[in-house]
Amino acid sequence: MKRTLITSALPYANGYIHLGHISGAYLPADIYARFLRISGNEVLYVCGSDEHGVAITISAEKEKVSPQEIVDKYHYANKEAFEKFGMTFNVYSRTSLPLHHETAREFFSDFLKKGYLIEKEEEQFYDSFANMFLPDRYVEGVCPNCAYDKARGDQCDSCGAYYDQLELKNPISIVSGKTPEVRKTVHWYFEFNKFQEYLEKFIEDKKGIWKDNVIAQTQSWLKAGLQERAVTRDMTWGVPLSGIPGVNEENAKGKVLYVWFDAVFGYISFTKIWAEKNNKDWKNWWQDEETRYLAFIGKDNIVFHALLFPAYLYGKGNYILPNNVPANEFLNLEGEKFSKSRNWSIDLKDFYIDFAEPQYNDVLRYTLAMNMPETKDADFTWKDFQQRNNNELAAIFGNFVNRSLQFIHKNFDGKVPELSNKYKDLYFDWQKISNSENADFSKEFIEKYSQNDYDVILSLKKGIDKSIELFNRFRFRDALTEIMNVARAANKYFNDEEPWKKIKTDREYAAKTLFVCVQLVRSLAILFAPITPYTSSKIASILNINIYTGESISETNEQNYWKNSFIPDLEQNHIINDTVILFAKIEDEIIAKQVDKLGDKQSNKIENDEDLIDINDFQKIKLKTAKILSAEKVKKSKKLLKLQVEISDSTRQILAGIAEHYEPEYLVGKTIVVVSNLKPAKLMGEESQGMMLAANHDGKLCFVTTEQDMPSGAEVK
User: Which residues contact 218 (CB under 8 A, 6 or more apart)?
Assistant: First the structure.
């Protein structure tokens, strides 16, 4: 296999890492990095803090500290939490470092020279009291689409509409609380649209290789047509534009790179930092076709890693592009979305307050892995955490290890049992078992040893082979299930062999059984290592051997320990240390305490009574089907489409903020649902005589339609 570069989305340094983050982009990447290293592959796992952007400065202003103090606080807190969780980053750096600034500015300069960046003069809100232009999150007002009175400067959180910030009604600066004025400013735009054709082919080639959710979302963006995107902001916190060759110094004053533009270059700058520290060549990882690049992310980051970053890398030239972007869906908590404002969240740092012992860290890793949102949203519950520990890790994996090693201590002086002449060839015959299940060999093996021996060794072989296939397809839940099935087979083997009886009547046979068991203990320690590394290390200590659990090391492991876990490697009479309980039972009261810490579930669903409306209020809203007769883009607006729609026998004009999601010609003839009794409103100088309904999720809009073809004007109830 090629050398593998792995990145996880950079966590934003204005809050603590919670379990939803872990399940989406970090645990799957760490599991895979450990698996590859154990398998003898060269791996570089890169991550770090994203430390620029408006959210950082707003947090700093709220806490009355500097942006640097904010990012320092969360960078080190999250770095410590990741370390406790067992993350094996080769480097965990930060975007506020000088080398990152240098790298991001280098890309900007190159794009400027190649004509991928254009300079535009535009109008923007300006706070004359605070003497600053207002980026989108620094202004609030009334949504021009639905009249929600706390809409942000670029998007309404209530109706999901996108708009230019100047369309916001009654705008207020969140800095001074005053009404801003409108002034002209200059910004630079990346001509994303120039890469449309290349990216279409790039994504087309990934069909059948990348996850369906990644392909679907990227194709949706491509179908709507890629647009120019601003890459600068009027701020002082971030990567400064001043001093970049080719940039007008007057226009560059007070401007920085937009955080979504500079953050992805952190993967490259962090690699440079690691390479400099370890006397390596960073170009081997980013500019060598022999390197395979995997970008682990959550689904909210798909567009940045599957389209934007590839466009940057291709535009710069001589860089490798992602071989895969294995994006996960979202993890919910006890059936609800994570929300720190509603106390419906579990921060990693808080988990360690009540569950400080390494055992629980592995239980958490295992539970999250078995509930990983690989193809759809998943759910973490404390009850499942308890059951995974008690019914699987303790009752299956831990139980087999404990009963096998205790039996050896009690009956074989704490040493790997010695095989009698009758069974002396087991070590060699073991290695001949394969998935081919050769009939002659299997019959001979079973007659020589037992059916149970053959079945359990074959289960181990199949588990190893299947887990390799599944890990490499990023199906971590299924791979872990196969590994746990090996532990189940091992437990069944112990039960079926009944060594507690055989030790009294046939000691040689019992010795053979426990020889098999202790070899399986070692094998399971290796196979569980990517998921439960602390437990695997503990088992290695008990077995009095070394087991590589996939940590980041300076020199690449060249042995394939994963495949070799099939080989019975523990020698006869090898001394074993005293065993300990690997997974203690978690009692109900411990779980109840954790559930009680979460905000009230009912109050989470409806924050306050003011959100409720009665049936009379709802009946005032008239929803009707409408057929789109024509659609065109609104001049000077990236987000608005002008629709002519038929409602019964009348025709109306409706403006909809979906231009970034649908091509106009695609919509013609479609049946949609509209609010038909909304007062007319003017947007971008055009009158809108109603509102088109669309579902909004993570910035993606999909128009609402009927299941069956309905005539226009049909009432929606």
Answer: 199, 203, 302, 303, 306, 307
3-state DSSP call for residue 524?
helix
Judge contact between 225 and 193, C-beta under 8 A: yes
Give the least confident one: 147-151, 191-195, 487-491, 652-656. 147-151
392-582 CATH, one of 3.30.465.10, 1.10.730.10, 3.40.640.10, 3.40.630.40:
1.10.730.10
Tokens describing residue 428: 């060699």
Q: Which of 98-107, 191-200, 355-364, 647-656 has the lowest mean pLDDT?
A: 647-656
Domain range list for the chain: 3-97+259-354, 106-257, 392-582, 613-716
Contact 333, 361 (CB under 8 A): no
Question: Do the first three CATH levels of 3-97+259-354 and 106-257 match, i.e. the same topology?
Answer: no
pLDDT in tens, 619-661: 778 899 998 988 888 887 878 889 998 898 888 999 998 887 8
Whether 517 has a pLDDT exceeding 80, the answer reads: yes
Alpha-carbon distances, residue 631 vs 59, 628, 656, 686 (angstroms): 41, 7, 10, 14
Q: Tens of pLDDT along 351-362? A: 999 999 999 999
SS (H, E, C) 29-94: HHHHHHHHHHCCCCEEEEEEEECCCHHHHHHHHHHCCCHHHHHHHHHHHHHHHHHHHCCCCCEEEE
Task: Report yes or no on whether pTM surpasses 0.90.
Answer: no
DSSP state of 389: I
Contact residues for 63 (Cβ-Cβ < 8 A; gap 6+)? 69, 70
Highest CATH level, class, for 3-97+259-354:
alpha beta
CATH number listed for the domain at residues 613-716: 2.40.50.140
Query: Alpha carbon of 39 to those of 302, 329, 484: distances in Å?
Result: 29, 27, 19
Q: Using CA of residue 518, residue 521, residue 526, residue 527, what is the dihedral sign? A: positive
Q: First-to-last CA distance in the chain?
A: 57
The partner residues of 119 in beta bridges, in order of sequence, read: 188
Q: Which of these, 455, 450, 452, lies nearest to 422 by C-alpha position?
A: 450
| Contact of 67 with 57, CB cutoff 8 Å | yes
Amino acid sitting at position 129: F
Q: How far apart are CA 93 and CA 13, in angstroms?
A: 12
| Local confidence band at 605 (pLDDT 50, 70, 90 cut-offs) | very low
CATH code of 106-257, in short, is 2.170.220.10
Confidence of residue 610 (pLDDT cuts 50, 70, 90): very low
